[in-house]
Design goal:
By secondary structure, the protein is of the alpha/beta class. 27% of the residues lie in helices and 21% in strands. Strands 4, 5, 6, 7, 8, 9, 14 and 15 form an 8-stranded mixed β-sheet that branches.
Length: 461
């Protein structure tokens, strides 16, 4: 069985610098042509928003003339080009004078529990009609046959769906609008693509083995309550989320209940002219339909080499990089399974196994129990300045640092609130940062039934 392949682009910002962007289009088209001639032919092209810089008609005219039509000329099927709007595809001039946009009313949509804004019926569309003009130029150019039509976004369902069949495998594509409520530079944590809209779209693709959701903003920019619900939907449906907005290549796994899902972030197609500080990028991606593995090859434009070269920046995790290659390999999804507590109670399972990427292991109570036998010599070396070992920490022979309890309590609290917590431990060498880290892992696993994914050789957690 073969692979499903795509090209992911985002954040063109057309209108910001027309000459520089037209030059970029020529470089980009040449790169796509070279890739295609080498036998790497994409089954789809995903463009995740911010096509224009200010949502103006001229911006989309340039996009059509300088990129879409030439893309067709080199043999790319434009019906397999999927676009979604971003915050820069909103024409802010059309916000003026619209009563629905007065004050903070757009941001308050999610706080109003009686709002039907995101309902997928006639009443929901009627409310949204008051802001559709903001997307009018995007809508005109993307619904007239130059790409896969986006009209579903501006109808009752609020998004579009499509299915691509590759070697008897169904791949579902969903396009959502994360910029519905976009209003200003203060959008973070105030947005949503619409929980009901996404839910119905995912349900419509139940017959698909793989589901790819396209949006502009990262999940972290969604309203907290909406983010929880949308993450649950993506995890439950085993879908993958592709987006842009942050102008750099990146990835992230989310673990929801028993299922983990993958998000892929594409850098900006155009940030600036040939400037090493701000570079223009793209991603080639594919799903191995036999192994359910996702391979990503990020590229960036190099002014020095005058070509697209591998983007091997620190934004992509080295752990997932394929050995000797400029590509990264991820599981499409992973699952967690466990058993209930012996007393029949709920809460976290006592035993937990997780399918994590190759080279990782799962640290839980069982793992710790098997490594509690520490040699006296090993403990003495620790007090003599040696880096702590798993067995030394897990044995309990090394006194627990006071800060450990504070960190553990904070993790437990954030978990109960379904929030993500990141703790940065700083200090000079030999101050005990690794000791604290491992003692936090031991406490979470032994006392609270947690598990921790550890890197190869136990050197990273």
């Amino acid at each position: 069985m073969g692979n499903f392949r795509w090209l992911h682009l985002s954040d063109f910002h057309i209108g910001k610098d027309n000459y520089g962007q037209i030059k970029l289009f020529s470089y980009l088209l040449e790169h796509i042509k070279e890739r295609k001639n080498s036998g790497w032919i994409p089954d789809a092209v995903f463009i995740t928003g911010d096509i224009a810089n200010k949502g103006k008609e001229a911006d989309y005219e340039t996009f059509e003339k300088e990129f879409l039509l030439p893309l067709s000329d080199i043999g790319i099927d434009l019906e397999r080009v999927y676009l979604v709007p971003g915050n820069h595809d909103v024409d802010r001039d059309k916000d003026k004078g619209q009563c629905y946009l007065a004050s903070e009313s757009l941001y308050s949509v999610l706080a109003d529990k009686s709002s039907v804004f995101f309902d997928t019926d006639e009443s929901g569309l009627k409310v949204r009609t008051g802001i559709l003009d903001r997307f009018s130029e995007f809508q005109k150019k993307t619904t007239k046959g130059l790409c896969f039509p986006t009209k579903g976004i501006f109808e009752e369902k609020g998004c579009y769906v499509d299915t691509i069949k590759k070697e008897n495998v169904n791949i579902g594509i969903i396009g959502v609008n994360t910029a519905w409520l976009s209003k200003s530079d203060q959008d973070e944590k105030k947005l949503s693509p619409g929980k009901y809209m996404l839910e119905e779209a995912l349900n419509a693709l139940n017959n698909c083995e793989y589901k790819i959701v396209l949006g502009h903003h990262p999940l972290s920019w969604f309203h907290d309550e909406q983010k929880k619900q949308i993450c649950a939907l993506l995890g439950k449906s085993k879908a993958m989320y592709l987006h842009g907005h942050m102008h750099k290549d990146s990835m992230e796994y989310f673990l929801i209940q028993s299922t983990g899902f993958l998000t892929l972030q594409c850098g900006a197609a155009f940030l600036a002219r040939e400037d090493e500080k701000y570079y223009n990028s793209l991603q080639w991606g594919e799903i191995d339909l036999t192994e359910s593995l996702v391979r990503i090859t990020p590229k960036r434009w190099s002014s020095t080499n005058q070509m697209f070269i591998p983007d091997i920046s620190e934004n992509m995790p080295e752990l997932f990089r394929e050995e000797g290659k400029d590509s990264w390999l991820f599981h499409y999804t992973f699952t967690v399974s466990g058993t209930k507590k012996a007393d029949g109670g709920t809460g976290l399972p006592e035993k937990m196994t997780i399918k994590v990427p190759e080279g990782w292991h799962w640290i839980d109570k069982t793992y710790i129990d098997q490594r509690k036998e520490a040699q006296d010599e090993d403990i003495l070396k620790y007090f003599d300045g040696k880096e702590p070992s798993y067995s030394g920490i897990f044995s309990g022979a090394i006194p627990t640092r006071g800060i450990v309890h504070d960190i553990v309590r904070e993790y437990i609290r954030c978990n109960e609130d379904q929030k993500i917590k990141c703790v940065l431990l700083t200090g000079a060498g030999g101050e005990g940062k690794t000791t604290v880290l491992l003692q936090v892992v031991r406490a979470l696993a032994e006392e609270h039934g947690w598990g921790v994914s550890g890197g190869q050789g136990g050197k990273s957690l």
